[in-house]
Amino acid sequence: MPLLALGLNHKTAPVSIRERLTFGPDVITEALNDLLKYADVEEAAILSTCNRTELYCAVKQGGEQRVSEWITGYHGLEQDVIGPYLYLHRDRDAVRHLLCVACGLDSMVLGEPQILGQVKEACQTANDAATCGKLLGRLFQHTFAVAKQVRTDTAIGNSPVSVAFAAVSLARQIFSELSDQTALLVGAGETIELAARHLYQHGIGRILVANRTVERAHQLAVQFDGYAIALTELPTHLAEADIVISSTASPLPVLGKGAVESALKKRKHKPMFMVDIAVPRDIEAEVGDLNDVYLYTVDDLEEVIQENLQSRQEAAQQAEEIIELHVDEFMGWLRSLDAVELIQDYRSQAERTRDEVLARALRMIDNGKPPEVVVRYLAHTLTNKLLHTPSTQIRQAGFDGRTALLEAANALFQLKKANSKS
Question: Does the structure show a pLDDT above 80 at 128?
């Protein structure tokens, strides 16, 4: 049964296309059930994020076209509109693709960890919808184990590669325990929101959000159990802050040297960590000359980010080597499924032969035959019946010159090994 991964992502499609093919959490179960109505689709899971929409399916031979038709039809789109942006990976390539996705190698930010959680959610949703069977179930569990190994054995997730994350990582280096610290975030844009999220995830004690529009500051602060203030209130609250991260669109600095000096006096010169992400700068450069202030600009962070990107790229190469080994492992398991039915048929045939000979032996005992005679008959007859067909086929292979079959018989029955021991 072929495996396939069909979809598009930030590399193959612009957001205007990606947003037309997304599946919201409220419709994925319905969509999975609809997809499995197709006779050619046996199992399915849907991974849908802001950067990708992908279907992972186990299909009958030729089912790839049906899946492609389904995803465009489900969204009411024309195939020629979406088709150029779609990619299709089959079997080994599909397995490799999922492993790369889960390990963050296919993400916009190399090595980002959030995607693994999203893959786990996709698996759980498919399980709940009963559309994840033996093949996909095994593939997802294999994927989670590989992703864990990559995180453990490489440094792919250790180095920050976004401005917001780099800022928070520096704060964690200066303050070993964030739970005792107060962070003051100036601005309410995307970078500040990311910084708030990272701080919150790392257990920051308290968050203040200052913005020109207090309503927007409140919308952001409430997500992280924070408190909103107006930009004009900065001087009043600055002394409370152990960490200040600023990113506004102001053409002039919003924090001057005098305000920071006053705050330090109130803090009795307890150190402050300040990050100015804005361009033009939000914090006067002279603030960096003050004792007890650690001031970083966006340029300082960029140096950290570039170094860490190189580190992640090196780790990604190690991750790809790990992934390739585990692709081989999964494909070996997949191929072994082809042998399962053969083994079952062979065992059933042998058991039928055993039962037939045993029934005759039992009748012989009932008819008064000596046990020794019956046992000899049972052993001789059973051996002959089990060996008759293989012996006939091997003899014919020798007559026909089919050396490959003879070598396979040697490997199967380990005859050379048995002869060498004797």
Answer: yes
In a domain, 335, yes or no: no
CB 305 within 8 A of CB 274: no
| Model confidence, pTM | 0.61
CATH number at residue 172: 3.40.50.720
Judge if 23 and 138 occupy the same domain. yes
CATH of residue 134: 3.30.460.30
Domain that holds residue 99: 3-153
Q: Is the pLDDT confidence value at 138 over 90?
A: yes
Annotated catalytic residue within 50, 57, 123, 132:
50
**Strand 52-59 vs strand 41-48: parallel, antiparallel, or unpaired?**
antiparallel
Evaluate whether 245 touches 281 at the Cβ level (below 8 Å): no
50 catalytic? Reply is yes
Across the range 186-210, mean pLDDT stands at 93
pLDDT of res. 267: 95
Please state the rounded mean pLDDT for residues 279-286: 90
Cα separation, 138 vs 127, whole angstroms: 12
Asked if residue 8 lies in contact with residue 18, where contact means CB atoms within 8 angstroms, the answer is yes
- Does any domain span residue 85? yes
pLDDT bucket at 416, cuts 50 / 70 / 90: low
Residue 357 located in a structural domain:
yes
Please answer whether residues 239 and 218 qualify as being in contact, where contact means their C-beta atoms are separated by less than 8 angstroms: no
Task: Indicate the number of domains in the chain.
Answer: 3
Q: 243 and 213 in one domain?
A: yes
Q: Token digits for 225?
A: 């159990």
Mean pLDDT of 99-110: 89
Token digits of residue 238? 């600055």
| CA separation for the pair 86, 12 (Å, rounded) | 7
Give the residue from 414, 406, 401, 379 showing the smallest Cα distance to 390: 406
Predicted confidence at residue 264, as pLDDT, reads 96
Place of tokens 């992400």: 277
